[in-house]
Design goal:
Length: 400
């Protein structure tokens, strides 16, 4: 397939889904350029670029000024700057592409792709994994401004959807919503992961391979419950602090950052909760080691129907590393998959006493941990492989 694609993706912790989509495209025989920025939350871009180059994938970093990422205005500024700079750099480039793959954030990278299409041709595939502007309903801000932004967001979406050649999302629930709004067919590509990098290894081996600054804080004799990723309102991370208060015989490790991290650390100190450890983000290539130090994983969400679309990157990485997953969430795509594959447990956020029971049961029964962990790995191999994504992408592109 002698065609070219430019994948445009903003980086928070790293490229995440975009990295593996790029690898799937390369496996299809496409010439691939990834346009991104230095990650906001970690210093992992060099490692990502190096990994992409090993697969003969070109990567271009958009230089962005540092701005706080914890408030809505700063985030919009970052998105707008990325949209403008990526457009200008690609417009000046002599290269043209058969396809522009907009990985988000929506609608900013879609706007970039639509304008590039006017100047240089090509077809646009939009990969939408978040509901914009619906998320603004849960942001604390002036109510009038919020209504204006939501109305503006829906108007922009309607205009953009008419310009796209294909729409992709990461689960059937999201596909149904997007199809209803856009009046278009929406293709489903579940999350994707490199199963050779993210795979189960023993807890002892993982701890031995951890960086010294982390290894010194971890006692392998503890039962380790791990949460990784963003610490924001939607993630409802205070649940983890409450669980740590209720379960003395486990170490809760939280690796990540976000607007609620400092608040959680202050509460831990005030409440003298000694069995919860907060770690800063590490470069993404280290994450398979970090995950494998755990005995079980946590996925937490606030109790709202909005998050029924939830299938976050962390869930896919958890599954690939073959440990039980505890979804303390409202009913969502991740919790459904967890139940269907018997890869862990689903606990409604309001039933923390059941979450305590589940963690204690897993702590006391290694056989159950092994069965659930093996099921999680099987789920990842069946649903989230690069090969499966390449096959689906090939059908989408051939139809354009």
């Amino acid at each position: 397939m002698n065609k070219s694609v430019c994948l445009i993706s903003f980086s928070d912790f790293g490229l995440g889904r975009g990295e593996y989509l790029a690898k799937a495209m390369k496996a299809m025989g496409l010439e691939v350029l990834v346009v991104t920025n230095k990650p906001v939350y970690s210093e992992s871009f060099k490692s990502i670029r190096s990994a992409l180059n090993k697969d003969e994938i070109d990567a271009l970093e958009i230089p962005l000024p540092y701005l706080p990422y914890d408030d809505l205005i700063s985030r919009f500024v970052q998105y707008i700057l990325f949209m403008i700079f990526s457009f200008l750099i690609l417009l000046k480039s002599r290269r043209s592409f058969d396809f522009y793959y907009s990985r988000g954030p929506q609608p900013f990278t879609e706007i970039t792709c639509c304008i590039l299409k006017l100047f240089k041709g090509g077809k646009i595939i939009s990969d939408v994994t978040d509901l914009w502007p619906d998320a603004l309903e849960y942001v604390k801000m002036n109510r009038f401004l919020k209504r204006i932004l939501i109305l503006f967001g829906h108007t922009v979406n309607s205009l953009i959807w008419s310009k796209l050649d294909a729409i992709v999302t990461h689960n059937e629930v999201m596909a149904h919503i997007l199809s209803r709004r856009s009046g278009r067919r929406v293709h489903v590509i579940y999350g994707v992961i490199d199963l050779e990098r993210f795979k189960p290894i023993s807890k002892y081996e993982a701890i031995q391979k951890l960086p010294k600054n982390i290894r010194g804080k971890i006692d392998r004799n503890y039962f380790i419950v791990l949460y990784a990723g963003l610490l924001g309102p939607f993630q409802n991370p205070e649940i983890i602090l409450k669980l740590a208060q209720l379960i003395n015989g486990a170490l809760f490790v939280v690796i990540g950052t976000g607007p609620l991290k400092e608040t959680l650390i202050k509460k831990r100190e005030k409440q003298q909760v000694n069995n919860i450890l907060f770690l800063d983000p590490v470069p993404h290539p280290l994450m398979p080691i970090v995950y494998n130090m755990a005995d079980t994983f946590l996925l937490t969400y606030m109790a709202t129907d909005f998050l029924k679309i939830g299938l976050p990157k962390k869930f896919i990485e958890y599954a690939a590393c073959g440990r039980p997953i505890i979804c303390i969430t409202p009913e969502c795509v991740a919790s459904r998959l967890c139940n269907e594959w018997k890869a862990g447990y689903h606990v409604p956020p309001e039933k923390l006493e059941y979450a305590v029971h589940v963690i204690l049961e897993l702590k006391s029964n290694e056989d159950i941990r092994k069965v659930l962990g093996n099921n999680a790995r099987k789920m990842a191999e069946k649903l989230f492989s690069v090969e499966r994504v390449a096959e689906t992408l090939s059908h989408i592109i051939e139809a354009l």
